[in-house]
């Protein structure tokens, strides 16, 4: 036994058949996704590093802003926003799903001066993880937002160049020096990407349309070099917009006053 064995004391467990999902509610982290014996999401077994773990949500911005400045308001926002740094509240729970919420507060207003409610609902199915994000603008003005997901998928270092993917367009696993210069590149996201992981199975990363609309237009592909303490993962990150996207009105989501915007990401894992 190690201190990181699933489930730790912090983890809430959702189950459907042979599929298990772990969630650490207070930081809105999907910490585990397992189908049969395949552990799909990376767990930092040696380090316990929460910033190299599972499936975090990056909100209100995923990507780095130029000079860190949110131009709309002249404030600063860190890369990946503040969502993973603040305390979320577990509002609903069942055997198969959990709902978490983050409300605007004094901790958010100085950097992101809007009144909001962010609601994350994570649901387990047989071989599936469904993540629905609802962003409610409670302000009297338009609320710009450009979140994204940062899943760490377990991949052995020796298997990274042997991945087979259906996308994103322009990405080829064989062209990278995974040990020394792994990718950190944005690509278009075609709403669905499959990744065949040697000795594991086939993973599908897909956005489900909400009212016929898609919201995630880019996919960042990233990993760590073999010298990093945590490196046996590849991140395929579906995001609203690439670098500085929150500062581009045409690329971000602009939520009208007192309205909400919803998006849904679904991961499907089929073990060999």
From TrEMBL:
Annotated GO MF terms: carbohydrate binding; isomerase activity
Protein's GO biological process: carbohydrate metabolic process
Pfam families: Aldose_epim (PF01263)
Protein name: Aldose 1-epimerase
Cited PANTHER family: APOSPORY-ASSOCIATED PROTEIN C-RELATED, GLUCOSE-6-PHOSPHATE 1-EPIMERASE
């Amino acid at each position: 036994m190690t201190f990181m064995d699933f489930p730790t004391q912090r983890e809430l467990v959702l189950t459907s058949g042979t599929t298990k999902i772990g969630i650490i509610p207070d930081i809105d982290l999907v910490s585990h996704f397992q189908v049969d014996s395949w552990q799909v999401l990376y767990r930092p077994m040696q380090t316990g590093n929460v910033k190299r773990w599972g499936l975090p949500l990056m909100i209100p911005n995923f990507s780095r802003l130029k000079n860190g400045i949110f131009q709309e308001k002249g404030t600063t926002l860190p890369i990946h926003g503040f969502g993973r740094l603040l305390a979320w509240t577990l509002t609903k729970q069942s055997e198969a799903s959990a709902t978490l919420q983050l409300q605007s507060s004094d901790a958010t207003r100085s950097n992101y001066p809007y009144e909001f409610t962010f609601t994350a609902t994570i649901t387990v199915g047989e071989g599936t993880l469904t993540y629905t994000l609802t962003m409610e603008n409670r302000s009297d003005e338009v609320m710009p937002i450009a979140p994204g997901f940062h899943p760490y998928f377990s991949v052995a270092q020796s298997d990274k160049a042997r991945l087979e993917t259906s996308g994103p367009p322009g990405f080829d696993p064989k062209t990278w020096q995974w040990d020394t210069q792994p990718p950190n590149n944005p690509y278009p996201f075609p709403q669905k990407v499959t990744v065949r992981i040697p000795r594991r199975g086939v993973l599908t990363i897909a956005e489900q349309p909400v009212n016929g609309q898609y919201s995630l237009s880019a996919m960042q592909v990233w990993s760590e070099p073999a010298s990093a303490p945590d490196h046996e993962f590849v991140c395929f990150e579906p995001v609203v917009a690439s670098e500085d996207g929150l500062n581009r009105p045409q690329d971000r989501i602009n939520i009208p006053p007192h309205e909400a915007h919803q998006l849904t990401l679904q991961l499907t894992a089929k073990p060999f």
